[in-house]
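Let us practice reading a record.
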Amino acid sequence: VQLVESGGGLVQAGGSLRLSCAGTGIRFSEHGMGWFRQVSGKEREWVAALSTGGSTLYADSVKGRFTISSDNAKNILYLQMISLKPEDTAKYYCAAADSVYTLEEGGPFDAWGQGTLVTVSS
């Protein structure tokens, strides 16, 4: 099982980015899928989750600005981020678990990616 994130980069505050997470050896349609972020030296933060039925959950800090979605035929998970703020700067990881609630609670995970770095300048 492998999850590979991409799409990170440097963006100015107010800008947008779309992160992608490609999975192999796993069917996204059979798992709750989610995004986390972590700043070096700080605790990991759950960001968003997508259920097998298409329901979405978001952390309050990103609600209204981030959108999680997936293309299950291609096994790709997305995180569309708009109105980015400097405090969104972090390494973003995608993860799979048995449910969105398990993701929201921080695990255990069925799969975890290597992360992609997002830097938002002020």
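A brief commentary: Helices lie at 100-104.
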